[in-house]
Write a structure and sequence with these properties.
It is a single chain. By secondary structure, this protein is an alpha+beta fold. 30% of the residues lie in helices and 23% in strands. It has a four-stranded mixed beta sheet with strand order 1-8-9-10, covered by helices on one side. A four-stranded mixed beta sheet has the order 6-3-2-11, covered by helices on one side. Strands 7-12-13 form a three-stranded antiparallel beta sheet. Strand 9, helix 5 and strand 10 form a beta-alpha-beta unit. Helix 7 crosses helix 9. The longest helix is centred in the first third of the chain and has 19 residues. The protein is flat. The two termini are 18 Å apart. The relative contact order is 0.19.
Length: 407
């Protein structure tokens, strides 16, 4: 049984959605994380909380920073314009060169800094209170729930085709939604797929459907996974020419379920983008995913949910909880104890173990923070499987976990 929702039912339909890099909220997430990267590149110990709002030809950036005071408002403005251009917005209502960009970043609160900073008698504390969750399952080789994995893949296919020029007439703004049928707890096929994509004026709904359909098919494991034609909904409103922040206001941090597990696992409520790694909303969620993924990869469970909680200014976690949803091969209490011995779960310990004080965040801000490949410059370090063998050895597991057929 591999799904978060399969413990009491063997057959059901579950749905997740994704949004493209041109979605208004994702535009804001990417600008916020590009600002985080700029500060960390200037000073790996910088503190950043950068929020962004985007609407018709307007971007507003606000928040708190500390530790790279020579970064100017002009540099921040350039970061925003460059990101908008990279995404592909050169349209009348949202144009990289014609935007009004307002920068309202100020110094981090001294009260927060006092609680978070290390001192003679205390280690660095958490940047805020909160709860964070990590999840992994064996539905895909990326150890992600299949509906969100396929939703991301559809939009990635469309994005690559748009940027390469292979698919003419697609715009940056897009959303996808995949509903999968589960039988005996395993995903077997799509029951419906929804894709809404911005497009050039003059293309009708039928033309957009024919343009999109091959990229939907290419995202699926094979053609048997495709839903019936009358359950493939492409631009169901009929037209989607006005898109991006010109069509709908965007805000940093509004797509937290898209960023994580598509609703197939709990979420602590804190957004990731725009925050440096001293903020446990981000770093502890990454650590929880890292541990959960290694547990499943080690063959100790078909799925694993991990919760961490922190108090502002306190270094040690307030709680640490592991659930394998009845799929585990080892006692959960013993697993909890051993995982806490394997890694240091203080904010400093997490940052050092995953090497998070690097400019690696802009790449996370679209198409999910999880289920991605670790890269040579340190990005997605929380996706590594470097604990799996040690877990197998400790608990006497002989084989790796099997994954489902979702490639």
């Amino acid at each position: 049984m591999s799904s978060q929702f399969s413990s009491n039912r063997s057959s059901y339909v579950f749905t997740s959605e994704s949004v493209a890099e041109g979605h208004p909220d994702k535009v804001c997430d990417q600008i916020s994380d590009a600002i985080v990267d700029a500060f960390l590149e200037a000073n790996p110990q910088a503190r950043v909380a950068a929020e962004c709002l985007a609407t018709t030809n307007t971007i507003v950036i606000a928040g708190e920073t500390r530790g790279a005071d020579d970064i100017t408002k002009a540099q921040i403005e350039k970061i925003a314009r460059d990101k908008v251009r990279e995404i592909g917005y050169l349209q009348d209502g949202f144009h990289a060169d014609n935007l009004d960009v307002y920068v309202h970043l100020h110094q981090q609160s001294a009260d927060i800094a006092m609680g978070v900073d290390a001192a003679e008698n205390k280690d660095e504390g958490a940047g805020d209170q909160g709860i964070m969750f990590g999840f992994a399952c064996n539905e895909t080789k990326e150890f992600m729930p299949a509906p969100i994995h396929l939703s991301h893949r559809i939009l990635l296919n469309l994005s690559r085709a748009r940027h390469s020029g292979e698919a003419k007439g697609l715009g940056p703004d897009a959303k996808s939604q995949v509903s999968l049928l589960y039988e005996n707890g395993k995903p077997v096929r799509a029951t419906s797929i929804v894709v809404s994509t911005q497009h050039a004026a003059g293309l009708n709904q039928k033309q957009v459907r024919e343009l999109v359909r091959p990229y939907v098919m290419a995202a699926l494991p094979d053609k048997s996974w495709m839903c019936s034609e009358n359950e493939l909904y492409v631009n169901p409103t009929g037209q989607f020419v006005i898109g991006g922040p010109d069509g709908d206001c965007g805000l940093t941090g509004r797509k937290i379920i898209v960023d994580t597990y598509g609703g197939a696992a709990p979420h602590g409520g804190g957004a990731f983008s725009g925050k440096d790694p001293t903020k446990v909303d981000r770093s502890a969620a990454y650590m929880a995913r890292y541990l959960a993924k290694n547990v499943v990869a080690a063959g100790l469970a078909d799925r694993c949910t991990i919760q961490l909680s922190y108090a502002i200014g306190v270094s040690k976690p307030i709680s640490f909880y592991v659930s394998t949803g009845g799929t585990g091969t080892v006692d959960e209490a013993k697993l909890e104890k051993h995982l806490q011995q394997m890694v240091n779960l203080t904010p400093r310990g997490i940052r050092e173990h995953l090497k998070l004080n690097r400019p690696i965040y802009a790449r996370t801000a679209a198409y999910g923070h999880f289920g991605r490949e670790p890269d040579a410059t340190g990005g997605f370090s929380w996706e590594k499987l470097d604990l799996a063998q040690a877990l197998r050895d400790h608990f006497g597991v002989k084989t790796k976990t099997a994954v489902s057929s979702v490639a």
